[in-house]
Amino acid sequence: MRFGVAMISQTFYPFVGGAQTHTLRLSQKLRALGVDARVITRYYPGLARYEEVGGVPTFRAGRGGRSKAIGMPFFVVEALRLICARRAAFDVLHSHMMFSAMVVGLLARPLTRKPMVINPHGRGPLGDIGVLTNRPALTGQLPLAAARRWGSAFVCISQEVREELIGVGIDEGRLWDIVNGVDTDHFSPASKATRATLRRSLNLPFGPLVVFAGRLAPIKGLDVLLATWPQVSRSVPQSHLLILGEGEERANLETQAQRLDIADRVTFVGGCHDVAPYLRAADVFALPSHSEASPVALLEAMASGLPSVATATPGAKQALEDGATGRLVSIADPSALASALIEALTTPEAQQWGAQARQHIIEHHSLDVIAKRYITMYETLLHSGNSL
Q: Which class is domain 4-181+366-383?
């Protein structure tokens, strides 16, 4: 192996979200390119303290079954102890998101004398910088001040994230513009025959199928997506909505589906390790989020050749060209979202969106290219002696 990287992430598989997917796929590709990437994450009851997730060594630290306020300090302390005990295996610390994982990295840096990468995954009021700047000084401004002082490099997955980092005093010389990447071999279009086979194996309906993948959280706007479904199903008979993922909003969303009398046309799959088979089996992808920095799920759907409909968040606008590689609609507008979904399901021209979307991903978001960009950043830090 060239060198070792500690991927520090507060949450990881089996919990599925954009940051978790990015961390896993990047780690897998880095390992394929000769970098010894290992994940350090929080322990939860029922999970193994150590396992290989998709071939990536994964260590879980902390105490399960405790409240967040108590559980996070245990995670920080035990993850720090684990990194220090295995310091010979790690040449770079890479913290995903600017919360407890960043605190682990900030504490580990002076103890291990390793360079530290900080990788925000969100933007806006609910993103990394937005949350920290609105917290009390001890849990907000203090970590930001430490990041300004000790962060060796910061990853900007979008222009908005770059601007937010500059806005809190991070100098541009430490910023690396690296968009999220997609494995375009794993996420690829399916033929009609393959799609039919996938639907049978996954026990999915054979009518028009719209899929969402991501955390079931308020920021994802799934209540708006469900609100569209009576209109969509009237216009496109036998259409079905597939929701992949877990989160705190699941019970509320299931209740909403019952209330709207669409429960028989909506399937909550729950979390899954690999969304690719579901994307390849579907007809259209929907992303109704209120805020996105660089939505991994949308990039994966585009790589799979799906016509995609997304709300016009900065991250979606960065990925989709309206009318060329997908359709962008106003945020929190059920009528506009429904019309765009109906268009994607029924208009022959919409099929071209998927083909052009895949080409865009191949040219701009190929994981092979993105992983090599990360390796360049790591090697630059190591060669510059960016440690204490």
A: alpha beta
Q: If residue 193 lies in a helix (H) or strand (E), which one and from where to where?
A: helix 192-202
Q: How far, in Å, CA of 102 to CA of 10, rounded?
A: 9
**DSSP-derived 3-state class of residue 159:** helix
CA-to-CA distance for 27 and 100, rounded, in angstroms? 20
Rounded distance, CA 50 to CA 162, Å? 35
The pLDDT tens digits of the residues spanning 42-96 come to: 999 999 999 999 999 999 999 876 666 678 889 999 999 999 999 999 999 999 9
Q: How far apart are the first and last CA of the chain?
A: 24
Give kind and range of the element (H or E) at residue 362. helix 350-364
- Report the distance separating Cα 143 and Cα 247, nearest Å: 27
Q: Which of 91, 59, 74 is nearest to 382 (CA)?
A: 91
Query: What is the residue whose two structure tokens read 């209540």?
Result: 223
Q: Where in the chain is the domain with CATH 3.40.50.2000?
A: 4-181+366-383, 192-364
> Which residues on neighbouring strands pair with residue 58, listed in sequence order?
39, 51
Neighbour tally for 364: CB within 10 Å: 15
User: Residue 272 above 80 pLDDT?
Assistant: yes
Measured distance CA(244)–CA(268) in Å, rounded: 6
Q: Give pairs for 342-348: CB < 8 Å, separation 24+.
A: 342/231, 342/232, 342/235, 342/236, 344/283, 344/284, 344/307, 344/308, 344/309, 345/208, 345/210, 345/232, 345/236, 345/239, 345/283, 345/284, 346/235, 346/236
Q: Most confidently modeled of 62-66, 155-159, 283-287? A: 283-287
Nearest to residue 13, comparing CAs of 96, 77, 76?
96
Longest dimension (CA), the chain: 63
- Tens of pLDDT, residues 233-251: 999 999 999 999 999 999 9
Q: Does domain 192-364 have CATH number 3.40.50.2000?
A: yes
